[in-house]
Amino acid sequence: MALMPGARMNKDEVNYRMHEKCMTCMHFFYPNSCDMVDGNVSPDAVCNKWEMKPKREPMDGESYMDEYRKEEAKKK
């Protein structure tokens, strides 16, 4: 059943949210996993556990290599 013209709800009433997609959440891991939710997770979906990823500053080459070495050491 469609709403009649002029009977639309406002964005607050429907919990309209921008920028809240799993791909922007701190719990999401590319391509489709999450540390809070079991199973495959769509990067375009969102759940009530969504939290904005912290902003990362651009890395220079040396900083990038330091992070890369840390991640490689974790794998060993």
Describe the overall structure:
The chain is mainly alpha-helical and 76 residues long. The chain has a domain at 14-55. The chain is 20% helix and 5% strand. The chain has a two-stranded antiparallel sheet with strand order 1-2. A hairpin with a 3-residue loop joins strand 1 and strand 2.
Structure, briefly:
With 76 residues, the protein is mainly α. The chain is built from one helix and two strands; from the N terminus they run ββα. It has a domain at 14-55.
What is the CA-atom radius of gyration, in angstroms? 19 Å
What structural class do helix, strand and pairing data support?
A: mainly alpha
- Biggest sheet statistics: 2 strands, antiparallel
Q: What is the CA–CA distance across the termini?
A: 58 Å
- The arrangement of helices and strands along the chain is EEH
- Low-confidence region ranges: none
Helix content: 10-25%
Nearest-integer average pLDDT: 82
Instruction: Give the number of helices.
Output: 1
The best one-word shape is: elongated
Number of strands: 2
> Which strand order does the major sheet show?
1-2
Strand content: 5-15%
Topology, pairings included?
Blueprint: E1 28-29, E2 33-34, H1 61-75
Antiparallel strand pairs: 1-2
Question: What are the main properties of this structure?
Answer:
2 strands, mainly alpha, two-stranded antiparallel sheet, elongated, single chain, 76 residues
